[in-house]
Amino acid sequence: MRAAGRDPRAVRIPPPAPTGGPPDPAPRVAVVGGGIAGLAAATALAERGVAVTVLEREESLGGRLRGWPVRLRDGSAATMTRGFHAFFRQYYNLRGLLARADPQLAALTPLEDYPLVHADGGRDGFAGLPRTPPWNAFALAARSPSFPVRELAGVNIAAALQLLDVDVPGVYERLDGMAAPALLEAAGFPRSARHLAFEVFSRSFFADPRRLSAAELAVMFHIYFLGSSEGLVFDVPRSPFPQALWDPLAERLRSLGAGVRTSARVEAVAAGRRRRFALACAQAPAEEFDAVVLAADVPGLRELAGRWEFPADADWLAELARLPSAPPFLVSRLWLDRPVHASRPGFLGTAGYPTLDNVSVLERFEDEARSWARRSGGSVVELHAYALPEGCDAQREHERLVEQLHRVYPETAAAGIADERRELRADCPLFPPGGYRRRCTVQTPDPYLVMAGDHVRAELPVALMERAATTGMQAANALLARWGLPGHPLWSVPRRGRSAAARSLARWARSGRG
Question: Does residue 218 share a domain with residue 253?
Answer without folding.
Answer: no
